[in-house]
Amino acid sequence: MPATIIDGKAAAAELRQRISHDVAQLPEPPGLATVLVGDDPASAVYVASKRRQCVQAGMRDLHRHLPADIGAAELAAVVDDLNADPAVTGILLQLPLPRHLDAANLIARIDPDKDVDGLTIASVGRLALGAPGLRPCTPAGVIALLDRAGVRLEGAEAVVVGRSHLVGKPMAQLLLERNATVTVCHSRTRDLATACRRADVLIAAAGLPRMIGPDHVKPGATVIDVGIHRTDAGLCGDVDTATVAEVAGAITPVPGGVGPMTIAMLLSNTVTAARFADRKNAAV
Ligand SMILES: Nc1nc(=O)c2c([nH]1)NC[C@@H]1CN(c3ccc(C(=O)N[C@@H](CCC(=O)O)C(=O)O)cc3)C=[N+]21
After folding, report:
1. Which of this chain's residues are annotated to bind NADP(+) (predicted)?
2. Where exactly are the structural domains of the chain?
3. Cβ(137) – ligand 1 distance below 6 Å
4. Probe ligand 1: pick from 7, 43, 46, max atoms within 8 Å of CB?
5. Do the domains spanning 28-111 and 137-259 agree at the CATH topology level?
6. What residues have CB less than 8 Å from 7, skipping those under 6 apart?
7. CATH class entry, domain 137-259
8. In the CATH hierarchy, which fold is given to the domain comprising 28-111?
9. What is d(CA 224, CA 171) in angstroms, rounded to the nearest whole number?
């Protein structure tokens, strides 16, 4: 029997409904500052959807579009400005940045309480300690998707393929927090297929088109495809969906899987950041 398709579009729409409701309860609409440097076409598409959904949820769109040749000091000043602006609840610096800019340095400038991407050192530390904080959107979206699909994580064998700061590492930590037994695989893993076949829940986040095939999947496993690649044949993920669907119990499609959940979690983080800001104001 072919795998159940996990519908990320529907899950994201549901989550956005809840977020709109939460936004309406806040004393003031949160503001999301998306910062786009240059004109990378894929980045432009993602940022456009983030902005549209932000407005649809009742939040303020405080977008900044900056030229590709902006200097590091100038971009740092923009981040400082957004940190200081009380109308700005969340800041998202769209990656990748042009080559002459040091992303780590600029991310480090973002106020951790406005870090809706969950990428600052403080956010990473809070996640590692299990302390309250803003979690990276894609892995948080994957957990929400698994919960909605009724996938049990407690005691499950979870295998994450990929160890990026944006997805793989925080994904492993969130799964661990949910009491899964977590294995992290990467480009130097000796026998990837064997390691992956342990998985009850397999997360493909290595960034290589269709690298996960049916040989990597235990029959009945849940397969989450975080990859997104634009090829001549159209969009595809890190999973060879057609063949893996013959083996897996459930699988996320690309598009319509993890991507929409990433954006919904960004909105959710912006609401969380608004609550942090309220608490800070109440304290003074
Ligand atoms: N600071 C930062 N934070 C990010 O979260 C971030 C980033 N930089 N840089 C790039 C990646 C990629 N990313 C996606 C978000 C939504 C979809 C998405 O909605 N995808 C739709 C399809 C959209 C399409 O046609 O491409 C889907 O999968 O159904 C995909 C990819 C966020 N990223």
Report:
1. 162-164, 228
2. 28-111, 137-259
3. yes
4. 46
5. yes
6. 256
7. alpha beta
8. Rossmann fold (3.40.50)
9. 11
Q: Which ligand 1 atom sits closest to the C-alpha of 95?
A: 8
Q: What is the pLDDT of residue 282?
A: 81
Amino acid at 155: G
Tokens of 94: 């769209």
Given a contact cutoff of 8 angstroms between Cβ atoms, the answer to whether 239 and 224 are in contact is no
pLDDT, mean over the chain: 97
128 Cβ contact list (under 8 Å, min separation 6): 173
Q: Catalytic one among 117, 200, 238, 240?
A: 117
For residue 86, whether the previous peptide bond is cis, meaning omega lies within 30 degrees of 0, is: no
Considering only CA atoms, which of 256, 194, 212 is closest in space to residue 9? 256
| 55-71 confidence digits (pLDDT tens) | 999 999 999 999 999 99
What pLDDT shows up at residue 46?
95
Instruction: From the CA of 260, give the closest atom in ligand 1.
Output: 19
- Tell me how far CA of residue 251 lies from CA of 48, 105, 254, 281, 283, in angstroms: 27, 37, 10, 44, 45
Classify strands 60-61 and 31-37 as parallel, antiparallel or unpaired: parallel
Pairing of strands 157-161, 181-185: parallel
pLDDT at residue 67 in the model: 98
Tell me if residue 162 falls in helix, strand or coil.
Answer: coil
Residues 6+ apart with CB under 8 A from 18: none
Q: Which residue, by CA, sits nearest to atom 9 of ligand 1?
A: 95
Give the E-state strand segments of the chain in sequence order: 4-5, 31-37, 60-61, 64-66, 90-93, 157-161, 181-185, 201-204, 222-225, 229-231, 234-236, 250-251
> Which residue type does 268 have?
S
